[in-house]
Specification:
There is one protein chain. The protein is α+β, with helices and mostly antiparallel strands. The protein has nine helices and 26 strands. It folds into two domains: about 260 residues, 3-Layer(bba) Sandwich (FAD/NAD(P)-binding domain); about 90 residues, no CATH class. Helix content is about 25%, strand content about 25%. Helix 1 packs parallel to helix 3, helix 1 runs parallel beside helix 8 and helix 8 crosses helix 9. The N terminus is likely disordered.
Amino acid sequence: MERRKFLTNVLFTGSALGVGISCGRKIQPTNAASMAPAVSASSSALSGRSIAEPARQIPILAETDVLIIGGGPAGAAAAIAAARTGAETYLVERYNHLGGLWTGGLVLPLLSTHAVDKQGKTRQVIYGVGGEMSQKLKDLGMSIEEINPVVDPEAAKYVLDEMIREAGVKMLYHTWGSNVIMEGNELKGVFIESKSGRMAVLAKVVIDCTGDGDLFHWAGEKYDEMKYHIGLVHRLGNIDRIDTHKNGYVKMNIGKPTPIKSVNWVNMHGKDDQNGVDMLNLSQLQMDYRREIWDNVQKIRKTPGHEQVFLLDTASQLGVRMSRIVEGEYKLTLEDSMTYQSFDDAIGVSGAWTTMLYKGKKVPKSERPLWQIPYRSLLPKKTENLLVAGRCFCFERELVEDTRIIGTCLITGHGAGAAAGLAVKERQTVRNLDRKKLKTLLLQQGAWLG
């Protein structure tokens, strides 16, 4: 992606603190037109016009060790792992809950907890912070299935809240990142927005867990932008009251079970090749999908035997499966995942949940290998003090089905959080971090590296 020169001098004042940071790095201007670099026809009205925003004094909310933007599976795992190293950790989340698409998006299966090892045996691969989350939900009776367990979203929100509370994470809900604070190639912090106004948080290490790579986009990193199918999940209630013996009964699509016996979750493939960072497109899809779901549920209710079924809820988050993918120090490949590629800087292992096309052959999940994730794939090429975790770390498109799922997000989040905390403790940059020490720390935190 082409970057244009953007020079700015920003003066921060907060309490009695004043810090001047000059940004001489080439990054995208933050006017409305440039916020969506690949402008679709639907958003063409945003291009070609702009308005100057007057300079203003921005208060500094905090100076911290580790700052994480985005509280999905990756962000929650990263925050817990970082805080457990003793690093002061702030976690910023725009919604009122943690877990992202796993909870608010109602994408309830924890994929992929298992895969095939070199001996041809299916084994568990998700451990560490993600494994703890899964076990806690199982102990509460709020997950079903041993492999790729399906969880209750409200229980998962509760468990994640309690885990970050116990770890000592400083949580900021109803808050989102709005731009990065740069000094040359170094990321010094992030501007945040909320009902309390615009503020800044400065940090020694920042982790981009936005899912869409907002931070590395603002910082001027190169990336691949992938259009993909976007859906909207919903849940149905009174599933246990369906009368299959009623005259005229026809089997309908009522989704799949959840830990609550009367409730099913219903996935949606959605429209293909959608831009996940175009707000006008997302807004239209949101309305179209809600209508589609409502109409489908009414058809179900009119079908004999299904009269008591009702629409329990639609997901509070639209199901954006993929958007930006950072250009990192190492691009993980489908070949790596199919050949047991070993990495000296592995931060975890993920599994396989679906059939994949490899060298012209369909490989079923029952035959697909476990695969390591290298630390280098979390490191953007140019920006210092920044790590990337979640579905936007560095991988090739052919691996998208495995890299975007909940389990992989938990693994990359855990790795990034541990690395950030260790970097602060060692007074080292995340790029120059001793990888052996990182692996030792991850093992101490319960991770499995293969």
